[in-house]
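QA checklist item 7 of 12: single-chain prediction sanity check.
[x] sequence parsed
[x] length recorded as 230
[x] structure emitted
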Amino acid sequence: MLKTAEIKNKLRQKYEDENFVLDKSGCRMVEIMNCHFIADQPYILRKPNSDYILKELDWYVSESLNVHDMSPPVPKIWQQIASNDGYINSNYGYMIFNQDNYSQYENALTTMINDLHTRRCIMIYTRPSMHYDYNEDGMSDFTCTNSVQYLYRDGKIHAIVNMRSNDAIFGYNNDYAWQEYVLKRFVEDVRQHYHGAKIEQGNIYWNAASLHVYENHFDLLGENSDRKSI
């Protein structure tokens, strides 16, 4: 299976070939459709902004659905997609920890504890009503992560991430950090119930229906383009 560095090369090749697609606004993108790889690096094209990632993780863990509960300054992208009162759908902590979204984390943990080799250990992030919820009260937030499944194989718990849409610059960096955090926490929680068993943290397998780079980031598709996020 491909790894992160190979995905970087595929995006660069599409750019060099001028193989563009258009998004809803008419902006050009390079896109890998049905993209799947082992996410072995925390970024594809631009180095992560660790300060921002920690801020977003704290907000996710708070389970708040309002961007104004994030420590300031609130990033422009969250302000743009929020409702008139600052509400959004995609606080991932809310989606997996909160009982109002059916306690996805707890259900997945119980499932694996009861059967270590289960194929039913899944956290579902989005919901059927998202087709209507995404634009409520001025919002524009159709959740990007569909689900994450966890499999225990050969002494390791692996995460299989399924994305509806994934920006390869900001989106991947921040989503990877979240999935790494959840996988580490999940492995530790499962391990507590299997004293003496070999249970280690495995791979994160990344599946994106659309992995893309927007036109305003085409400069990052050059050969010497690794930068820190802002």
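[x] summary fact logged: The chain is about 35% helix and 20% strand.
[ ] second reviewer sign-off
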